[in-house]
Amino acid sequence: MTTDALSAAQPAGDDIRDLPFEEALSQLEGIVRSLEGGRSTLAQAIAEYERGTALRRHCEAKLAEAEAKVQAVVEGAGGLALRDVE
Asked: How far apart are CA 42 and CA 1, in angstroms?
């Protein structure tokens, strides 16, 4: 297993919440490559899968946030404006 895969295989936890989308996606891609390579032990593969699942959820939430912000752009009298999303 590569160093990237080892760091990506850390237990899913609070650290994921603070990851920017791009970093979370990069870690998820590393996990997928590692799992597809099939060189991990069963325990490592399970840990990677669990972290990958948490990263996938995080990425989906970040994408939903971005989509909501894009949908919040409205045409106003003065041009484009943002409306509150929260």
From this structure: 12
Domain encompassing residue 38:
3-82
Cα 31 from Cα 4, distance rounded (Å)? 9
pLDDT digits (tens, 9 = 90+) for 64-73: 999 888 877 7
> Which tokens hold the place of 50?
């669990």
- Output the six-digit token pair for 75: 């045409």
Q: Model-level pTM?
A: 0.70
Q: Would you state the pLDDT for residue 21?
A: 97
Q: Which residues of 43-53 are buried (b: 16+ CB within 10 A; e: fewer)?
A: ebbebbeebbe
Number of compact structural domains in the chain: 1
Q: How far is CA 18 from CA 3, 23, 48, 59, in A?
A: 21, 10, 19, 11
Amino acid at 23: E
Element (H, E) at 15: helix 14-17
